[in-house]
Amino acid sequence: MKTAILDSHKQTIKPLNAISKKGLKILADNYVINEQAEEPAGILLRSFNMHDMKFKANLLAIARAGAGVNNIPVERCTEEGIAVFNTPGANANAVKELVLTTLMAASRQLFDGIAWTRRLVSYGENIPGLVEAGKKQFIGKEISGKTLGVIGLGAIGARVANDAVELGMNVVGFDPFISIDMAWNLSRSVKRVLSIEELYASADYITVHTPLTDQTKAMFNQTAFNLMKKDVYLLNFSRGELVNDQDMGRALDHGQVGKYITDFPNEAVLKMNNVIPIPHLGASSKESEENCAIMAARQLKDYIETGNVTNAINFPNTNLPYTGRKRLTVFHLNVPNMVGQITKLLSEYQLNIADMVNRGKQDHAYTIIDFETNSEQIMSEKIVKQLKQIEGIVKTRFI
Ligand SMILES: NC(=O)C1=CN([C@@H]2O[C@H](COP(=O)(O)OP(=O)(O)OC[C@H]3O[C@@H](n4cnc5c(N)ncnc54)[C@H](O)[C@@H]3O)[C@@H](O)[C@H]2O)C=CC1
Ligand SMILES: O=C(O)CCC(=O)C(=O)O
User: Fold this and answer.
1) What is the number of the ligand closest to the CA of 47?
2) Which residues make Cβ contacts (< 8 Å) with residue 357, sequence separation at least 6?
3) Nearest CA to ligand 1 atom 33
4) Are 172 and 147 in contact (CB under 8 A)?
5) Strands 170-174 and 191-192: what pairing?
6) What ligand 1 atom has the least distance to the C-alpha of 264?
């Protein structure tokens, strides 16, 4: 695949979090990487909260090295024609491993046992005897034969469900929007249920792997806890906002929830009993950080240099192999006759189209047009101005 030669003036990428060097290396030759950049062409980030950021007109894309995009104002980006990418599945194995690690460790009371043991440090030669006498406080439960409820059977949830089956668990899964790919990947031993209530009623352990949405916000509340088995263990490696903290505190105090294992501690959570707080380590493995950074950097580079789109949240996946011809990309509303109006205008300038593609995603669509000729006329301000006047066009770009 050809890539466009960038202008003598290199474009800038602004990282908002620590991004693995392997990802930044992909961009190093063609771009200036500058954390202080005022007007970057692209932004790379992990969990940085972008909601209060204003965007300059030349910002083309934001790439999230990770899965969750609730830290990015996606709707505003769409209105401004800024593509928002994430890296589906790139950190899923890391999260899965931590979920299963903490599931087993919590079930065996390992965290409490380790904390208690550390406090014996001043007892000298009595320590071995104290250990033997005290260990009965930490008798745990084996997970084999117990039921795990998995809410959200995407990249992480499906992996957790499949491996939990291998560990001897009965697995119940709930995901009303499961993708065909994920359904194919799911072990046949995972019992899919059509209502979350059915999952709540049967699960000894519940792990949640959905994005934070209006539907999932505070889904773990008193009403939900009332439907769960007493002493259920809840694992939350998705987002803290999925849980109503006040209700969780009460459910833990009453033993309704036995333990709450969360990757998203806050002040209220840290004050609760029977919480296992983890400092958002789900995706923090060397492999996952590299996978995410490489994927995000490649997608960002490809979009900036060729206009092709892979794994954007708000743009449709669109690929027209880049041959070095002059190219026009248009992000527009997904309504009838947009392509007709664009091609009509181009024909008025005698511009012959060599190839084109148009894809839609919900309310928006994206069109890439390659021209037969590389004439400078294609870039003429007049054409740009007229394109902008077509109602429904959000952003145009000549490459
Ligand atoms: N702790 C950490 O470091 C990490 C946390 N995450 C969090 O985990 C979430 C899931 O990540 P992935 O599995 O990679 O995403 P994914 O997009 O592959 O899977 C999400 C699944 O949730 C399902 N879903 C959506 N709404 C639902 C609902 N109301 N009820 C049941 N299922 C629903 C979707 O159909 C999809 O199958 C992310 O959105 C993010 O918030 C992701 C990666 C790392
Ligand atoms: O980058 C990280 O460490 C956080 C990952 C995460 O939460 C996500 O991918 O949604």
Assistant:
1) 2
2) 318, 319, 320, 367, 368
3) 152
4) yes
5) parallel
6) 1
- The predicted complex's ipTM stands at 0.99
pTM, to two decimals = 0.95
Instruction: Give the pLDDT confidence of 7-24 residue by residue, as tens digits.
Output: 447 999 999 999 999 999
In ligand 1, the atom with minimum distance to the C-alpha of 210 is 22
Q: Whose CA is nearest to atom 25 of ligand 1?
A: 210
Amino acid in position 386:
Q
Distance of CA 85 to the CA centre of its chain: 9
Task: Give CA–CA dist 222/207, Å, rounded.
Answer: 17
Q: Best substitution site from 84, 91, 286 to test ligand 2's pocket, by max atoms within 8 Å of Cβ?
A: 91
d(CA 248, CA 219): 11
336, 326 Cβ separation under 8 angstroms? no
**pLDDT tens digits, one per residue of 308-330:** 999 999 999 999 999 999 999 99
Please, what are the domains in the chain?
A: 1-91+285-315 (3.40.50.720), 92-106+141-277 (3.40.50.720), 316-399 (3.30.70.260)
Edge-to-edge strand order for the sheet containing 61-64? Answer: 31-33, 11-15, 42-45, 61-64, 83-85
Average pLDDT of 220-241?
98
